[in-house]
Specification:
This protein has 167 residues and is an alpha+beta fold. It folds into two domains: 28 residues; 136 residues, 2-Layer Sandwich (Beta-Lactamase), CATH 3.30.450. Helices cover 50% and strands 16% of the residues. The protein is built from five helices and four strands, in the order ααββααββα. Strands 2-1-4-3 form a four-stranded antiparallel sheet. α2 crosses α5. It is globular and about 40 Å long. This is Heme-binding protein.
Length: 167
C-alpha cells in the first residue's frame, strides 16, 4: 500500500510540473500563418507600387519556412535568397544588413567577424529582418529581387503591417 501511495504522489507531482511548463509554453509568442500572410501581402503591395519583382519568405523562430511566395517575373535565384534572408534573421536577432557589417565592415573599417559570411545558409546583405514580439525573437522575413535597400524596404513594409499583432 505504501508503494502505491508513493507512486501516486510521484505521478501527481510529475503531472503538475508538466502542466506548469506546458502552460508557460502556451504563453510564448508564436508567429502565426495569418501574421505571415499579412506581412507578405504588405510586402507584395509595396513591390507592386514600386514596380519591383520580389520573392518573399517568412520563417518562424526555428528558422522553418512558414510562407514563401514569388511574384511573377521575379528572378528565379531570388527565391532561394529570400528564404535564406528570412532564415538568417530568424536565427540571429538582427537584420541581414548587420550581418554584412559584421562580416565585411562598414565605413572603411574591416568587419569584426569576417568569417560570418562563409557560414552555410547565412546571407550578409540587406533584405532580411528579424520578427520580434513582446521582446521575443519569433522569426524573420526576407525579400529578394531588388537592391539590398529595396529588399529591406519591402521586408519592413511587411513588419509594419503586422506590428499590432506582435505586441
Amino acid at each position: 500500500m505504501k508503494i502505491r501511495i508513493t507512486t501516486l504522489a510521484v505521478l501527481t507531482s510529475g503531472l503538475l510540473l508538466c502542466g506548469a511548463s506546458g502552460q508557460a509554453l502556451e504563453k510564448a509568442p508564436v508567429l502565426s500563418l495569418d501574421a505571415a500572410q499579412k506581412a507578405a501581402a504588405a510586402c507584395r503591395t509595396l513591390a507592386v507600387q514600386k514596380n519591383w519583382r520580389m520573392a518573399i519568405a517568412i520563417a518562424d523562430a526555428g528558422a522553418n519556412t512558414v510562407l514563401f511566395e514569388r511574384m511573377d517575373r521575379s528572378f528565379l535565384g531570388s527565391s532561394d535568397i529570400a528564404v535564406r534572408k528570412a532564415k538568417t534573421s530568424a536565427n540571429f536577432p538582427f537584420p541581414t544588413r548587420t550581418a554584412a557589417e559584421l562580416s565585411h565592415g562598414k565605413d572603411g573599417k574591416p568587419g569584426v567577424v569576417p568569417g560570418f559570411a562563409w557560414t552555410p545558409g547565412v546571407v550578409t546583405y540587406g533584405g532580411g529582418l528579424p520578427i520580434m514580439a513582446g521582446g521575443a525573437h519569433i522569426g524573420g522575413i526576407g525579400a529578394s529581387g531588388g537592391s539590398p535597400e529595396e529588399d529591406e524596404q519591402c521586408a519592413k513594409a511587411g513588419l509594419d503591417a503586422i506590428r499590432d499583432l506582435l505586441k
